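Weekly puzzle thread! Below is a chain. First person to post its structure in token form gets bragging rights.
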Amino acid sequence: MTDAAAWEALLLGFSPAFTSASLPVFQQLATAWVLCVGRRVVTRIYQVAEPMGHRAHDAYHRFLREGAWFTSELWKLLALKLVAAFYAHGTIPLDIDDTLFHKAGRKIRGAAWWRDAVRSSGQKVVHAFGLNLLVLTLRVEPPWGGEPIGLPINMRLHRKGGPGLLELTKELMREVAAWFPDRHFHLCGDGFFASLAGASLPRCHLTSRMRRDAALYRPAPKPRKRRRGRPRKKGARLPTPEGMAKSTKGWRLVDVQERGKTRPRLILSRIVLWYAVCGDQPILFVISRDPKGKEHDDFFFTTDLSLPPEDVISIYAGRWCIEDTFKNVKQLLGGEDPQTWRHKGPERAAALSFWLYSLVWYWYLTTQGARPSLPRRPWYTKKCTPSFADAMASLRRALWRQRIFAPSGNTAQPRSIVGALVELLAYAA
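Winning reply:
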């Protein structure tokens, strides 16, 4: 099977999510989205999908706005495929975060004014108009090593006046847990999601960042003899994380894996209660310090008490892969570009951009092997690990070869080949 045929077979595997009429539109839309260069507006995608104009251009708008298909089913099929390929056994590692897709039209359904995390700082808050998307990603360790890859497996649109991000996260985790009823999960999120540690997520541990001023306690002591009244739920008050960092005892020098690199870190750890967040559930608290003193101390925790403290730091550092996912979906897949504004169109277009990101990586990881060939660049002679741009280029190369040469067959058809090629490449830049 050729690489192009593998992509077509991959798309065909999602046919249960579509009707017989909408499946061809989905297949053409997904392939044209990958091949399209420049802004991924629906009309430009149409020009790549239908260079000879066999299908009405509004078919793709209707498919996004009101087509008879459900993103939840599409996510489920994708998640089942990804987990079977990369985590057939063991705990499933997940990351959670939200991002903003900037939009200009004021009548785009689901769009509103939100805090722009990229342009905001501790001293200044910047708001922007767009779609606030909560994305759940599967963390995959690539066979060539280096930084992990964050593959989206589920998404929610955060609406003004609707459930908050924490409630939507619970919905996502309950949904994913139903897809994998016999599996356990480890969820990682930044400090905003720390309160989920006390939310009883199904079969799920949480790793996150802790506040510097968090009120910590010792675990409740076991009563020596029965007394009247309710047993104690917490022990003596402990210093805050910032206060514990002033200690001169108990520090260990360890090697920590951070984003594919090994770094030395001084760590201090202990079992504590963060009663305001986790109640009487003990957590593992870890302080990470730069031995050279050039960086600020970091404070982390996990609900998984079996983890070595250095692994807690590595797990949180690996969360950065979701930020790479957001950047690549926006810059390389044009997630913000589609100009659909009615009904389900905006949410579906955003979901498809994240869904395609996972599918392109899946195709690349399963077809190119552990040592994919990379083009030699005179300015980048030591590159040994592929990026998403390389995965996209590899898929495009395979699809263009198939599109250009497949129509000829055994008989030369120069006019039809050249005509299609001209129409396709005319809008490639």
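Puzzle host: Confirmed. Bonus trivia for everyone else. Residues 345-367 form the longest helix (23 residues).
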